[in-house]
């Protein structure tokens, strides 16, 4: 297990999800639910690195985004 305490997930068969852009094309940020974790990648580079989040980390991120914590304004 890596130093982060999170496993290296096998995302080979993962179903990657992304939000749709205004023109209906898939967005660049993709997520997948794998073995109780949330994996995130850049859909433009599907063979690139994958970020791994626990359920608690993901919930904190989503709540922060809803609260505007990451707004650039």
Number of strands: 3
- Helix tally equals 1
- State the major sheet: 3 strands, antiparallel
How far do the termini sit from each other?
39 Å
Detailed description of the structure:
The chain has 73 residues and is α+β, with helices and mostly antiparallel strands. It has a domain of 50 residues. 16% of the residues lie in helices and 21% in strands. The chain is built from 1 helix and 3 strands; from the N terminus they run E-E-E-H. The protein has a 3-stranded antiparallel beta sheet. Strand 2 and strand 3 form a beta hairpin. The longest helix is centred in the last third of the chain and has 12 residues. It is globular. The mean pLDDT is 89.
Summarize the structure.
This protein has 73 residues and is α+β, with helices and mostly antiparallel strands. It is built from one helix and three strands. It has a domain at 16-65.
Q: Which key phrases capture this entry?
A:
73 residues; DUF397; 3 strands; DUF397 domain-containing protein; globular; alpha+beta
Secondary-structure map:
Blueprint (H helix, E strand, L loop, with lengths): L28 E6 L2 E6 L8 E3 L1 H12 L7
Antiparallel strand pairs: 1-2, 2-3
InterPro entries: DUF397 (IPR007278)
Pfam family, one: DUF397
Organism: Streptomyces tateyamensis
């Amino acid at each position: 297990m890596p130093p982060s305490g999170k496993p290296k997930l096998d995302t080979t068969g993962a179903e990657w999800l992304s939000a749709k852009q205004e023109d209906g094309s898939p967005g660049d940020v993709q997520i997948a639910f794998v073995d109780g974790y949330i994996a995130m990648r850049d859909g433009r580079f599907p063979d690139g690195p994958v970020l791994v989040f626990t359920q608690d980390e993901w919930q904190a991120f989503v709540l922060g985004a809803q609260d505007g914590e990451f707004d650039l304004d």
